[in-house]
Amino acid sequence: MPTQGSNGVNPPKLDERYLITESAIECREAGGRWVPSSRVPVTVMSCAKPTPDAGEICHQNEDCASLCISAINAQSIENLCYGWSSATGECLRLAETPDKEICFD
């Protein structure tokens, strides 16, 4: 049974193929993103899945399936749920510490 998102709406059913993909092509075909899952001591690639609450307003990481990030646009700063299950290789500003950019290795 699917769980409801924080907005009370059931998230779309994700293509579960991302769990078993072994290549960038399979990952993208399943709706995922081929990203590094580890960079130490060697880079290991895996398929990151989209999160069901991507783009929803949040206040802290616990409000999201992944991370709560500060999104800065021309008019304002909004805290939004990050759209992917992995942030490895990304530099983001977390809502809890928006004055610091954190890079995930």
Description of the structure:
The chain contains 1 helix and 6 strands. It is mainly beta. The radius of gyration is 15 Å and the shape is globular.
Quick description:
The chain is mainly beta and 105 residues long. The protein contains one helix and six strands.
Q: Percent helix among the residues?
A: under 10%
Query: What's the mean pLDDT score?
Result: 80
Termini separation: 34 Å
Give the spatial strand order of the biggest sheet.
1-2
Low-confidence stretches: 1-7, 9-13
Query: Structural class, from helix and strand content?
Result: mainly beta
> Helical element count?
1
Features:
26% strand, 105 residues, two-stranded antiparallel ribbon, globular, mainly beta, disordered N terminus
